Amino acid sequence: MSKTKKPGKHATRLSHAGRDPARFHGFVNTPIYRGSTVLYPTLDTLLADDQEYSYGRLGTPTVRALQDALAELEGGHATLLTPSGLSAIATAIQSFVSSGDHILVSDSVYRPTRRFCDTVLKRLGVTTTYYDPVIGGGIAELLTERTQLVFTESPGSQTFEVQDIPAIAEAAHAAGAEVIMDNTWATPLFFRPFDHGVDVVVHAATKYIVGHADAMLGVITTAESAAGPVAKTHDILGLCPGPEDVYLGLRGLRTMQVRLQRHQESALALADWLAQRPEVERVIHPARPDHPGHALWKRDFLGSSGLFAIALKPVSHKALAAMVDGLDLFGMGYSWGGYESLILPFDPTAYRTATTWQVEGPALRLHVGLEDIEDLKADLDAGFARLASA
């Protein structure tokens, strides 16, 4: 939408990408366009189908503004929006597979991605093999003549394994396979997938892009070579997010860098504090030097977000409930990426197949929001006191 790309680094681009105030009577933000029918001025225009907008499902100025901004920030060729992160994942995968094909998916992938592969893809005759997320270039041994894509997610969902994306991409491309990456944790600010060989990037924009826990939105950004298949599948599936959700994505985008800086700073401070707690067996945060994948994270990533995990020493269910049920600032709920702090117990034992999750005590995933860090520590400190009493 912008007449020219604005110069500068991420902070500047986040403020200006996708905007063209002159086109909208000087208003800073692109307005919300609600609509289905778009009128054509003449029969020839209708038959040529060459005007900028043709039907609401196929895009509006609001949608175009966010797509253009994200494609620029991601460094990709084109971006498409979907109603959720999961719909973005499903669309991206379906763009490259047919019955009889094979795909490789990280064993630490977002669990709904796994369910999609194990149900819909299986029913359509597509075979999925789950691989150890730290396999790196060794993934070459799992690639077959029928392997169409390798799905990556780094760090891994819940357990935060860092993948060697360049090595995986090199092996996949040598075998003629596409590489898709879920980059929700890092966002375009903290990891640049196209610089590391990825062909398609997906995000649950519901998280950090929207940033306020008030909208559902998915994003698919492609390299030029992958743009055609994804655009075709997206069109056929009839995907279009709601106009208010798109607008909230645009609004959230403008403050994403300052929010992520705060998320990063607070999460690292809290992770270091938790590492000293006697109740905590292990802190699982890629940006900490004691994380197994820290060297890869340091090599490839530009920062870390507010999401990490801890493993507690063995305690009873009653004690764990006493701890989390009484928390004031850490809410229990799904999703993350908003301004609020969240805590969620998890146990991936039942659905990992290529790797084994080995902890003796309960595990907790934390999203550190924008609250004062001392208040967050005090909330958890009181929770640990309840745990000990129980």
Automatic annotation (TrEMBL):
Location of N6-(pyridoxal phosphate)lysine modifications: K207
Source taxon at top rank: Bacteria
UniProt entry keywords in alphabetical sequence: Lyase, Pyridoxal phosphate
Molecular-function annotations in GO: cysteine-S-conjugate beta-lyase activity; pyridoxal phosphate binding
Enzyme Commission number: 4.4.1.8
Pfam families, sorted: Cys_Met_Meta_PP
Keyword Mitochondrion: no
Signal sequence, start to end: none
Reactions listed under catalytic activity: L,L-cystathionine + H2O = L-homocysteine + pyruvate + NH4(+)
Transmembrane region(s): none
Cofactor list: pyridoxal 5'-phosphate
Gene3D superfamilies: Aspartate Aminotransferase, domain 1, Type I PLP-dependent aspartate aminotransferase-like (Major domain)
Matches recorded under InterPro entries: Cys/Met-Metab_PyrdxlP-dep_enz (IPR000277), Cys_b_lyase_bac (IPR006233), PyrdxlP-dep_Trfase (IPR015424), PyrdxlP-dep_Trfase_major (IPR015421), PyrdxlP-dep_Trfase_small (IPR015422)
Single biological process term from Gene Ontology: L-cysteine catabolic process to pyruvate
Enzyme class, UniProt record, top EC level: lyase
Protein family membership: Belongs to the trans-sulfuration enzymes family.
PANTHER family with a match to the protein in the record: CYSTATHIONINE BETA-LYASE-RELATED (PTHR43500:SF1)
The protein's name: Cystathionine beta-lyase
